[in-house]
């Protein structure tokens, strides 16, 4: 072996990473090898041709699914696009790539999205009601975003019944019928009476016994009013126990029903303000400042002022929500004839107002108080429908 060959055998190899092609050369006793820099960093030297058209279609479906809005319709379209995309991927894996593992995984994803799509479509199915119930849904529940599925739970046969009344038949009798129910009038008209005195009517899409339902204290409470059908009527009828059981499961529906009942009670109470009229037929609104200022003064304790004070508190919601203040609010506005001119308990009054009140609606507290104390005509009157 020559000395030069020995040097070559003992020579070291130096590797350079340069941005050029692979080059090897020998310089003196050392071997130099240069490798491609991009390949050394893990990048591809060469690129394959684009995948099959089925692969491209599947990814296009995924792209479409991910840009769908988050609405109910957008969710349906997203699931449909995912089903189509995974189905194409499954076919691509089975026919083109021949990869059983990819085929199985994509087939599982396809089945999952099919089940999700069917469930969403089931929830979106059109739920139809009778024309009367459809009117109730659109008038009362749809403004509160109650779905048709939730409303169907409220009016299903297990929860409610639809009952008919002929003219003259009673829904409830004073001091006889128990307050263990809740009724909603679908069609017709009913009248509310207390000791044969007319209080107010009940029209379609109004609750029949919302005050009694809201303020019921025990199982033995009775109606303090009589509710009689003025025309042929149909109403929706719930048992209290059934509603309470449903409200435990459907909390949003319970909130909506509580709101509707409270609004119905308020409407009934404020409607009775129309029964306060003067001798000449003028309506006396107890919410007027001249009346309110007189009622708010605590110097005078006349029976008439006390009566209007109690009536004002009842209408304005100042009185506590108790059976005495809510359940009896309707009949407190009417009382049987009595020898004394002053009638307590917020009785409907028909009195002649002073000129200042009738014309301008304003007056001093002394004038209003003197007018209330000296007036002696107190009796009920029916509300005249315009």
Automatic annotation (TrEMBL):
Highest taxon listed in the record's lineage: Eukaryota
Subcellular location: Membrane
Entry annotated with the keyword Transmembrane helix: yes
Topology in the lipid bilayer: Multi-pass membrane protein
Domain POPDC1-3: 50-275
Keywords noted in UniProt: Membrane, Transmembrane, Transmembrane helix
Keyword Zinc: no
Classification via InterPro entries: POPDC1-3, POPDC1-3_dom
Transmembrane parts of this sequence: 76-97, 103-122
Predominant cellular place of this UniProt entry's protein: membrane
One of the record's GO cellular component terms: membrane
Name of this protein: POPDC1-3 domain-containing protein
Organism field: Ranatra chinensis
Top-level taxonomy: Eukaryota, Metazoa, Ecdysozoa, Arthropoda, Hexapoda
């Amino acid at each position: 072996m020559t000395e030069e060959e020995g040097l070559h055998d003992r020579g070291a190899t130096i590797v350079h990473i340069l941005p050029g092609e692979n080059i090897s050369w020998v310089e003196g006793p050392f071997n130099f090898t240069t490798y491609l820099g991009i390949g050394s960093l893990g990048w591809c030297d060469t690129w394959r041709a684009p995948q099959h058209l089925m692969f491209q279609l599947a990814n296009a479906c995924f792209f479409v699914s991910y840009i769908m809005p988050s609405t109910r319709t957008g969710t349906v379209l997203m699931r449909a696009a995912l089903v189509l995309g995974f189905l194409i991927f499954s076919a691509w894996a089975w026919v083109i790539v021949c990869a059983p593992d990819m085929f199985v995984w994509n087939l599982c994803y396809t089945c999952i999205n099919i089940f999700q799509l069917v469930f969403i479509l089931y929830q979106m199915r059109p739920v139809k009601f009778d024309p009367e119930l459809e009117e109730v849904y659109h008038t009362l529940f749809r403004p509160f975003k109650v779905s048709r599925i939730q409303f169907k739970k409220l009016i299903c046969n297990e929860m409610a019944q639809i009952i008919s009344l002929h003219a003259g038949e009673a829904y409830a009798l004073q001091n006889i019928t128990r307050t263990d129910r809740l009724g909603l009038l679908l069609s017709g008209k009913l009248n509310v009476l207390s000791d044969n005195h007319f209080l107010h009517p009940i029209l379609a899409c109004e609750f029949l016994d919302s005050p009694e339902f809201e303020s019921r204290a025990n199982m033995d409470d009775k109606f303090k009013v009589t509710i009689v059908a003025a025309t042929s009527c149909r109403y929706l009828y719930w048992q209290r126990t059934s509603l309470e059981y449903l409200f435990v499961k459907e909390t949003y529906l319970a909130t909506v029903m509580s709101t509707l009942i409270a609004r119905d009670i308020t409407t009934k109470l404020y409607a009775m303000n129309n029964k306060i009229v003067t001798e000449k037929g003028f309506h006396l609104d107890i919410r007027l400042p001249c009346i309110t200022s007189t009622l708010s003064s605590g110097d005078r304790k006349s029976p008439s002022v006390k009566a209007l004070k109690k009536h004002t508190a009842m209408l304005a919601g100042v009185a506590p929500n108790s059976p005495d203040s809510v359940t009896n609010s309707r009949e407190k506005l009417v009382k049987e004839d009595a020898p004394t001119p002053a009638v307590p308990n917020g009785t409907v009054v028909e009195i002649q107002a002073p000129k200042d009140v009738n014309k301008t609606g304003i007056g001093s507290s002394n004038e209003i108080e003197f007018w209330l104390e000296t007036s002696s005509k107190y009796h009920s009157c029916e509300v005249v429908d315009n």
